[in-house]
Amino acid sequence: RDGFYQIASDGGFLEKPVSQRNIMLSPGERAEIIVDFSKYEKGTQLSLMSNKEAIMTFNVKGDGKDDTEVPSTLTNIERMSEAQATKIRSFELQGMGHMVSINGKKFDMNRIDETVRLGDTEIWEITNPGSMMHEMGHPFHIHGTQV
């Protein structure tokens, strides 16, 4: 079982490629990956698996020669200093499906509980203990925005 490189996620490029053998995605989450099919012989069949079920199959049709290489750096991500933070916010996520709450309030897409001023640096502490019948915590993402 060969791996692949993850090069980006929901928010854009990662700083450098990450060699992976598997990846867990939450519903709606995205990941961009590179798979080098040139190392497989014609006729090879590869499947993208979700748990034990094939959700996509790739059929290698030709003898591809590819001398391109995955770059060692994809982008430069400027590190922020914790000392720059103007505020620390804590969020606790509970539940799944239609029973999600944040800090004890039922999730409502039409309600705005927090506002961050443009240009501010904040630290967000996310607690996601998993609850009810689910061992997995609720996936965390900010609705209505793209970084």
From TrEMBL:
GO terms for molecular function: copper ion binding; oxidoreductase activity. This is Multicopper oxidase domain-containing protein. It comes from the Bacteria. Belongs to the multicopper oxidase family. It holds the Pfam family Cu-oxidase_2. Residues 91-146 form the Plastocyanin-like domain. SUPFAM superfamilies: Cupredoxins (SSF49503). InterPro entries: Cu-oxidase_C, Cu-oxidase_fam, Cupredoxin.
